[in-house]
Structures are given as structure tokens and as C-alpha cells.
Amino acid sequence: MGEPEKKNKVRATVRLRVVRQDSPDKPGSRRVEEFELPFSPQMTIHGCLEAVRKKPETSAGARVLPIAWEASCLEESCGSCAMIINGRARLACSTSVESVSPAGQTITLEPLSKFPVERDLVVDRGRMSDALERVHAWVTLGDLQSAAIGPRESEENQQRRLELASCIGCGACLEACPVYVPGGDFVGAAAINRAHLMNQHPSGAMEKRKRVRSLMGDGGVADCGKAQVCVEVCPKQIPLTESISKVSRDATKELFWGWLAD
Fold it and tell me: What is the pLDDT of residue 141?
């Protein structure tokens, strides 16, 4: 008779290691707390944080304040739950426990490092909004506002822009970028992609030169280090490097031939 079959070991718990901070003005309160909670199939990082919220008790048995983190849609559409999970920027709502800890290792959660910490895993991403304002990332309607019908365009062009428009503002591309650093000037891939999107719009194209020129100075598209890690971590798989390349080409044309249009 052969040896009896070994039963698969059933995973019973999840171990979390969370980097915490009480408030923006208390960097000295930064610390690490560990938690252990029951595992359930298809459990996500968001589910883990919810379990800790219901029972905020460390693995050592100490009662603590619930972990602060952001969440809204829970379907990878808002980007608010972005954080560093085991060293990489990911979305808590769509990251499963088994995908980052297949063998039961401890899962480490940290706030995004490129933005000021508000509390625990919550960060202030206002810098992203400032970058969008710099590149004029919207369409100015002007006289078109009263028009009953907007400019017509092909379905092919619409689908091309839809891919670029899927950005959820999570900041994962900026977290991964080696050039985008706290206190730096670089606007980052998200803002450059947004400028390219607006430049492809029939009405937005009227202000293309304004956007391109805004990206020709310090912190603009020329500061991109071409590491290409932004496109690797983007949860929506936006072709960010293509957007950067095309805006860079537009900036070069403006630099050499823009005076002809003045």
C-alpha cells in the first residue's frame, strides 16, 4: 500500500504589519503595529483592514485605535485606497491576500511615501491636483458652451481617448517614479497623460500649445527619467510612456517651430 495522501494545510490567519502615524505634525509618532486576524477565501487587503477596524487589537493583545485608510468605490475606480503593500504601490480593494502572501508571510502596509502623511495610511495627494492645474487639464468651452451639438469625431478616436481617460488618480505611477520625489518639481506621469488626453480632444486641442508650453519648463516632460516603471504599476494599464513620448515630441516641435505660430 502506498503512503496516505497528505492533506493540504488550510490557512487560518493573516498577519499584518502596519506602519502608523497619528497626525501630520507628529512624525515622531511613526511606529509599526502587528495584527493577526482570521483568513477567509478571496480576502482582500481592504477586507483585512475592515477586520482590524471591527476589532482593533494587536497580535500582542493591546487595544489600539482603528487604522485610518481611505476607501470609496471598492471596485478599482476611485484610487483612494492606494498604499504600499509589501513594497509596491497597489490598491487595497483589488489586492488579494493570497496574491501578496501566497505562503502565509506577514503582509506589510505603508502609506505612499511621495505624499505627506495625514494619519496612518491616509496621505494628502493635493500635489496631484496642483499638477493638473499647471497643465490646464480640462477643456475650456467658451462660446461652445451654448452650442447644442459639440464637435463630431470618429468612434476610433473616442476609444483611443477612453484608454487615456481611465486614470483614477491613485498615485501609484508617482510612487514608483524615481524622479517624482517629495519637494521636487516634476509633475509626473499622471498629469502629462492628462495633458495629452486633453490635447486629443476636438475642443481641448484649441489650447494644446498652452499645455505643451506649461510642460517645457522645470518639472516638465523633459525631467522624465524614462525609467518606465510608471506603466508597470498602473492598475488601469494606461500607456503612460506613450503619452509622455508624444508630449515630449510636441514640446520639441514647439521649441523649434513654435515661433512660426506666434
Answer: 74
Average pLDDT, the chain: 91
User: By the 8 A CB rule, do 39 and 97 touch?
Assistant: yes
User: Do 89 and 172 meet the contact criterion of CB atoms below 8 Å apart?
Assistant: yes
- Helix (H) or strand (E) holding 119, with range, is strand 117-119
- How many Å apart are CA 171 and CA 114, to the nearest integer? 9
**What global pTM score does this model have?**
0.88
Q: What is the 3-state secondary structure (H, E, C) of 64-94?
A: CCCCCCCCCCCCCCCCCCEEEECCEEEECCC
| SS3 call for 127 | helix
Burial group, residue 173, by CB count within 10 angstroms (0-12, 13-18, 19+): buried
Grid coordinates representing 51 are 477586520
- DSSP code string of 170-226: --HHHHH-SS--TT-----HHHHHHHHHHHHSTTGGGGHHHHHHHTSSTTSGGG---
Q: Which domains does the chain have, with CATH numbers?
A: 13-123 (3.10.20.30), 126-261 (1.10.1060.10)
How distant, in Å, are the alpha carbons of 42, 101, 227, 236 from that of 73? 18, 24, 31, 15
Query: pLDDT below 70 — which residues of the chain?
Result: 1-10, 142-150, 259-262
Structure confidence at residue 147 (pLDDT):
58
